[in-house]
Amino acid sequence: MKEFLKKFINNRQKYQDVINAGITSFLYRDKRYADHFSIILIYIQSDSYNYKFKNILRGSDEHIQIDRYLHCVILDSISNETYIKGAENLLYKLQKEYLNSFYVSTVCSENYSLNEAQMIKKLFDILQCSIKHNIKNIVLDVEYMKG
User: Fold this and answer.
1) Closest among 37, 42, 103 to 75, alpha carbons compared
2) Distance set, CA 74 to CA 21, 30, 37, 47, 101 (Å)
């Protein structure tokens, strides 16, 4: 775990760039139509190349595998009122399908006034906190960081 946290911190900018490139179409719809989205960042403690995220996502959602343990899921057309529930539903489906431990952070575009850099930075801050403090199988968002 500590080894991954070190790798996570050292490669954080590269990981953030991957997500930034993956949300381009979602940002367009958010700016043009106020069609918000959420980003979920998931660290899985075991090799997760076999995980089939497409089987548990809606057709408009997107999965990005960042490395063998780190995944990003973008939930399309979601609001500030529903993004945490969406992440919890995804976590539940993952836990049901794959008996494993998951570290999960989430943010919603509606809360970031179209500032994707700040949104992605906060997403990584929350996941880093979750891993550092061993808070697994719970969805953490910005409210946790405030407390």
Assistant:
1) 37
2) 12, 13, 7, 21, 20
Domain covering 2-146, topology: Alpha-Beta Plaits (3.30.70)
- From the number of C-beta atoms within 10 Å of its C-beta (0-12, 13-18, 19+), residue 110 rates as middle
Containing 140, the helix (H) or strand (E) segment is: strand 139-140
Dist CA 73 CA 65 (whole Å): 9
Cα distance between residue 43 and residue 91, in whole Å? 11
- Residue 64 CB neighbours (<10 A): 18
Model confidence pLDDT, tens digit, residues 56-100? 999 999 999 998 889 999 999 999 999 999 999 999 999 888 878
CA distance 35 to 132: 33
Rounded to whole angstroms, how far apart are CA atoms 89 and 91?
5
Q: What are the pLDDT digits (tens) for 26-63?
A: 999 999 999 999 999 999 887 766 778 888 999 999 99
Rounded Cα distance between 134 and 83, Å, is: 23
CB 130 within 8 A of CB 105: yes
